[in-house]
Amino acid sequence: MNDQAFYPIGTPGQPWGAAERAEWLGRQVKHRSYADDVLSVVDRLRDAFDVVPYGALTYGAEHYPLLAVRSRDWRDDLPVLIVTGGVHGYETSGVHGALQFLEQHGHDYAGRANLLVVPCVSPWGYERIHRWNPDALDPNRNFTKHSPAGESAALVDLLEPLRDIALLHIDLHETTDSDESEFRPALAARDGKPFEPDIVPDGFYLVDDADHPQPAFQQAVIDAVAKVTHIAPADARGEIIGSPLLLPGVIKFPVKQWNLCAGITNARYATTTEVYPDSPRATPQQCNDAQVAAIRSAMDYALAHRNG
Fold first, then answer.
1. Could you tell me if 293 and 202 are in contact, meaning their C-beta atoms sit under 8 angstroms apart?
2. What's the half-sphere exposure (Cβ side, CA atoms, 13 Å) at 190?
3. Which H, E and C letters describe the chain, residue by residue?
4. Residue 74's domain spans which residues?
5. Domain for residue 275, yes or no?
6. CATH of the domain at 209
7. How far apart (Å, rounded) are the C-alpha atoms in residues 26 and 112?
8. Would you put residue 241 in left (φ > 0), alpha (ψ -120 to 50) or beta?
9. Rama region for 55: left / alpha / beta (φ>0; ψ in -120 to 50; rest)
10. 97, 162, 81, 86: which is closest to 124 by C-alpha?
11. 270 assigned to some structural domain
């Protein structure tokens, strides 16, 4: 497949303009409710945690409050552990895994660490089950100060005071069949480039920081998640989504260079999870559980090695 003529919007070889973006936006449909699925759960957490508004997004008639959940007993002498989910709104277990962690295990870290959890960075995308925001921008390529993506700019501002003191940042994602059927073809069409198909890995994997790799940390997370769901094998080229393996189930990206979420801070320990919810070997609950296992193992490793 060497062109994107099959994609229903745009002209092959020509980047989208305003008309194509408007046509794309007109095709997006709301499938679920941020208020019902996310805000209602956050409300249940208010007795045990502080809920911090860090901005809001207004798209047309729709208004989305942006909320972070943080430790009530925040202390300056404790390490800071950051969890983000829902950077890509269609990656469901990132959102629900972050909330499940807070409900089931957040109290385990009281007095040991300061937790800051942002369960749904992209609420509009969550409701549309989409990767982009309404401007056809991918938040996870736009985590910069004054970003054109409002979701990204708000999170960067929230984390700015923690940039040099955060110990851990774990960002929760999924890789789905729709990456190949919809999102990568749409990206190619948007940018006027040919679509080059790839293989969707069957299983969980992690993305390390190519500039500051932490292989022992990544291995600890993989070992914990392997007890919950299967780890993605390499393809015939020895790669996962076009990247060579650093370790079994671990690849690496230049996260700061690409303006990815896990690179917002200078946390010593940082990783991006990738769950595969379309596998016949995994249920939705398993996917949530895998995210929780990743969070807990990442936090436990970081705390155990904070002085190492």
1. no
2. 16
3. CCCCCCCCCCCCCCCCCHHHHHHHHHCCCCCCCHHHHHHHHHHHCCCCEEEEEEEEEEECCEEEEEEEEEECCCCCCCCEEEEEECCCCCCHHHHHHHHHHHHHHHHHHCCCCEEEEECCCCHHHHHHCCCCCCCCCCHHHCCCCCCCCHHHHHHHHHHHHHCCCEEEEEEEEECCCHHHHHHHHHHHHHHCCCCCCCCCCCCEEEEEECCCCCHHHHHHHHHHHCCCCCECCCCCCCEECCEECCECCEEEECCCCCCCHHHCCCCCEEEEEEECCCCCCCCHHHHHHHHHHHHHHHHHHHHHCCCC
4. 18-304
5. yes
6. 3.40.630.10
7. 48
8. left
9. left
10. 86
11. yes
* Domain-embedded: residue 193: yes
Q: Structurally, how many domains does the chain consist of?
A: 1
d(CA 12, CA 301): 48
- Look-up of token digits 């209602």: 40
pLDDT in tens, 163-184: 999 999 999 999 999 999 999 9
What average pLDDT does the segment 42-67 reach?
97
The answer to whether the CB of 239 falls within 8 A of the CB of 211 is: no
The span from the CA of 277 to the CA of 284, in Å, is 6
Which residues lie below 8 Å from residue 173, measured CB to CB, with a gap of 6+? 87, 88, 91, 94, 272, 273, 274, 275
Confidence of residue 1 (pLDDT cuts 50, 70, 90): very low
Q: State the Cα–Cα distance between residues 83 and 114, nearest whole angstrom.
A: 11
Output the six-digit token pair for 175: 């890789």
Judge whether 208 lies within some domain: yes
- Band (pLDDT 50/70/90 cuts) for residue 2 is very low
